[in-house]
Amino acid sequence: MMDKNCKNCGESFRIATDDLEFYEKLKVPAPTRCPKCRQQRRLAFRNDRSLYKRTCGLCGKAIVTLYSDDVKFPVYCAGCWWSDKWSPFSYGRDFDLERPFFGQLKELMDTVPKMACLQLDNENSEYNALLAYSKNTYMSPGSYFVEDCYYCRKSQYCRDCLDCNFIDHCELVKSSVNCSGCYNCYELLNCRNCRDCAYMADSTGCSNCFMCSGIVKGQYFYKNIRYPQREYENIVKEKRQQADEILMKEFWEFNKTVPKKALNIINCEACSGDYLQNCKNALECYDCFDLEDCKYLQESVSVKDSMDLSMHDKNIELGYELCSGGESNTLLRFSFCTIDSYDSDYLFMCFHLKESFGCDGFHSKNKFCILNKQYSGKDYVALREKIIEHMKKTGEYGEFFPIELSPFPYNESCAQDYFPMIEEDVLAKGWRWKAKDRREYASATAKLPAKIEDVPDVIINTIMACEKCGKNYKILKQELSLCRKLRISLSRLCADCRMWKLNSMKNPRKLWDRKCAQCAASINTTYAPDRPEIVYCEKCYLELL
Q1: What residues does 123 pair with on adjacent strands?
Q2: 25-57 pLDDT per residue, tens
Q3: 506 Cβ partners below 8 Å, 6+ apart?
Q4: Has this prediction a pTM greater than 0.85?
Q5: Nearest alpha carbon to residue 3 among 23, 26, 36, 31
Q6: DSSP state for residue 305 in the 8-state scheme
Q7: Which residues, 6+ apart, have CB-to-CB distance to 141 below 8 Å?
Q8: Where in the chain are the domains?
Q9: CB neighbour class for 187 (10 Å; exposed up to 12, middle 13-18, buried from 19)
Q10: Which residues contact 121 (CB under 8 A, 6 or more apart)?
């Protein structure tokens, strides 16, 4: 066991004996930053929602991209990036053992072309980052197999959904978080297999329920009390005359009075964190599925024997300090957006690259590469050892890419979503910040009616202004149609503020020690001790159902 002070925030953190054994297995030094700061650094390289229009640097066609015009590297459409019209080897260079590694890597990254939006096999869905196998979808980053979905982050196998986060196998669902198998619902948190419900939390198998929490297989429930069908329908009809903001406030106040399970963990063994399913020996992990022997993971799936992964999934083993991408990566360290890579370090947007170090932009099978230059197996091994020894002397080896290397300003990255900072503090650290474009903050050209039945078709041609931050946004035609179908009002917030609202519905990714309110057993929970909720251990909570 080892105690250290974080190099970034200065807080003390503990490295467990098992962690040290993992670092030894991967032959990497112990981290210099705490788990929170390591995660923040990784997320600074991922941009989910800031999109730009420009032209492909190779074929010249108009594209939508994650990268603004001020980046130094070329940006290619997906077709050109995957093609054989260019070669990552043409940007290869020798490694200089007299200079720091990250400076040389940045020079490489500033020249190698980047794919516009990291998409795979989509139809009519150009306005998305990190989207796959989807159709007619807009601003739904990190999703796959979705159709006719809008502003739905990290969702899958859904259709006709709007303003959601972490939903799967849902249809006609709006403004919901961590839900699966739901139909014709809105304002749900942590619900499964519900239909025709609204303002619900921690409920399963319900139908025609309104403003309830912790209900299982309920029908015609209002505030956890069952009513005759006619009476229930009259209550709901009357409540729906009120504004969404009033109903949400009433719901959250009621929700606080219903006992909560300490952690949202299903079918797990020896795990800690929140929103975990089918995991074993997964510690301090959040929003993950099918993990085994892992620690400090977020939004990852099907991973074994790995630490410090963010949004990285599918058949991963022995991974450390990785962000985005995934699928068949093994023995991979300090890399961003990689697929099918093996025994490599410091890869940036590389696919099918094995036994390589400090490379960018590989999109076909290769190995034994350093700074995009090809070596023989023997020469690669010898030079890699020299580089690592050099990096240990400069204090670079064992660290993820510095935030200064990110192609995105801090406030355009996912780091701002989970580790918000103000401009002055970001600039003081030497990181970039995107200033507001005043052209995006004009006055609204019309007022949005409170009731969906009063919204005219021409609203889709109107410039709206976010009620929270003032940023302009537009109502999509499909968004209007979906809200009419659900008979609920349109959002008065921009895309960023909508995501902030969804994120705020969930507890923070942090564990506290508490006592079960029923049996007084010691528990770990994401409910802070000073919060008013009644928190039960799993055993006591299940006895309530």
Answers
A1: 135
A2: 999 999 999 999 999 999 999 999 999 999 999
A3: 177, 178, 189, 274, 275
A4: yes
A5: 31
A6: E
A7: 48, 49, 128, 129, 130, 131, 153, 154
A8: 1-33, 440-498, 512-544
A9: buried
A10: 132, 133
